[in-house]
Amino acid sequence: MYITRTAEFSASHACYRPDWSGERNREVYGESSNPRGHGHNYQLEVTLEGEPDPVTGMVLDLKELKEIIHNEVIEPFDHRFLNHEVPPFDRVVPTPENIAREIWRRLSPRFNGSGGPRLANIRLFETADLFVDYAE
Amino acid sequence: MTRVTREYRFAASHRLHSDLLPAADNQRIFGKCNNPYGHGHDYVLQVSVSGPVDPDTGLVCRLAAIDAVVEQQVLRHVRDQDLNCWDEFASLVPTTENLAVVVRRRLSGAWQVAFPDGPGLCGVRILETKRNTVEWRLPCR
C-alpha cells in the first residue's frame, strides 16, 4: 500500500553553469539560465510503500512523515536561493531532476526498510506544467 | 529512475459519432456527446519522458526539444480545432481513448527521429475534463 504526503517550499534557483557561455546556457536551459535566479513554489509529494500496522491501522503516522519532510527538506530549502545556500547546488545545477534526486538522498536514510515503510517515489512539481518523478 | 512530465493545455471541439452505426445507436451509445453541432473541452495533455540524467546538464532532456515535438506532432493540429476535421479522425471516433492512441502513435514516430539516443517517451495522459482521464504508460528506462 502506498501513502503520500504533500509539502511545499518556495525557493529560487538559476539553471546555469558558470563554466559555460551565456549563449550555451540559454540554449540548454532557456529562460531559467538567468544567473540572478528566479523562484518557484515547489510542490513535493513523498510516497511510501508499506503495510498498515494491525493495531494503529497506519503505514506510518502522517504527523511523523510530515516532521521528517519538514526537517530534511522544507527547513533547509524554504526561502533559500538553492545555488548559493543549499549544498550540493553550489556545484550541481538545481534542475528539477537534480533537486528530486537530492530530496531522495536526504529522505531515504529515514526509510531504510528495517521493518518500516520504504521510500517509493519522490514527485516534485516545479510548476503546474512541469514535474519530475524520482525513485531508486 | 527519473521521469519528467510536461503538461500542455488546448481547447478543442469534437463530436462522438460513428458512420458505421445507425442514428439510434449513435444516440444511445454517445448520448449528449452525439449532439450534431459538437461540443468542446479544455484538454490537458501530459507527456512523460524518462532516461538517465545527463551529468553535464542535470537534465533528462531539454524542455524546448520536448515542446517542439509535441507542438509539431499534436498541438498545432488540435489547438482551437474541431478534432473531427483532423485527418487522424477521418474514420475514427475522437474519444479521449482514441485521441490518446493518436497522440501516442504520432509522438512515438517522431521520437525516434528527434531523440535517437535520448530519453524515451514513457507516458501520455489526457484529461478531457477534471473527471475523465485516459493514460498510456510504458515502464521507465
Can you describe what's shown?
The complex is a heterodimer of chains A (136) and B (141). By secondary structure, chain A is an alpha+beta fold. Chain A has 4 helices and 5 strands. Chain A has one domain: Tetrahydropterin Synthase, Chain A, CATH 3.30.479. In chain A, strands 3-1-2-4-5 form a 5-stranded mixed sheet. The longest helix of chain A is centred in the middle third of the chain and has 16 residues. Chain A is elongated. The two termini of chain A are 18 Å apart. Chain B is an alpha+beta fold and 141 residues long. Chain B has a single domain, classed as 6-pyruvoyl tetrahydropterin synthase/QueD (Tetrahydropterin Synthase, Chain A), CATH 3.30.479.10. The longest helix of chain B is centred in the last third of the chain and has 19 residues. The model of chain B has no long low-confidence stretch (mean pLDDT 94). Chains A and B meet through helix 4 and strand 5 of A and strand 1 of B.
